């Protein structure tokens, strides 16, 4: 096992730790880790991310449920439209994206670069939504019309399908802002949505990609150890601090991804 592989597995532990603490962000670490450290193509990396984050989140859901921090009803309502969108995106939309999106002079925007930059833009928007407001400032009804939730689920599902994310960095803000769920419960509830979305999305990839199951399973097992540890540690961190930390974490990773993609030009 070489240094890069060891670093990759340490990264897998951190991925799980982040998922356990904030209910999202696993893919925000997993995709750059697989692309920039381990050298995977962005399309393959986003597929692997779905499996790692989905499987780890399943364990996290159980851990959070034992603490009474999962709202299954709201989780399922959000999950249904989004997992359909995630599957269709991974099965049909992502394979249909051309390898070269466009070129201007010496600059060429490839499929891989386009996915990573889109990923970073979504991360930036999510980070801003979590940093600029406190939970007490949200004036939102506890009941929202189902069609709005359905449309929101479709939109987030399509986005997370394209970028290969579980969607925690989008679902946690959505649950806090739209469903009026306290931060810590939003974290737990997001894990069930992430589990369903990610694993169903990965099913679309299995039909189009060759999967390195040996590496993927080891990486995932290490992430599961991390999420168990993260869930245990989350009880020592307050909701508002968790929310702001989540936002700043996403912001830093978004800037890093953009820097890495544009550095070659």
TrEMBL record:
Mind listing the UniProt keywords for this protein, alphabetically? Cell membrane, Membrane, Transmembrane, Transmembrane helix
Protein name according to UniProt: Probable membrane transporter protein
Q: Which family does it belong to?
A: Belongs to the 4-toluene sulfonate uptake permease (TSUP) (TC 2.A.102) family.
Asked whether the keyword Cell membrane is assigned, the reply is yes
Where is the protein situated, by its record's location annotation?
A: Cell membrane; Membrane
InterPro entries from the xrefs?
TM_pro_TauE-like, TSUP/Inactive_protease-like
- Give the transmembrane ranges: 12-37, 43-62, 74-93, 113-131, 151-174, 186-206, 213-233, 245-262
Organism, by scientific name, is: Algibacter agarivorans
Q: How does it sit in the membrane?
A: Multi-pass membrane protein
Decide whether keyword Transmembrane is in the record. Answer: yes
UniProt cross-references to Pfam families, sorted A to Z: TauE
Subcellular location, principal: membrane
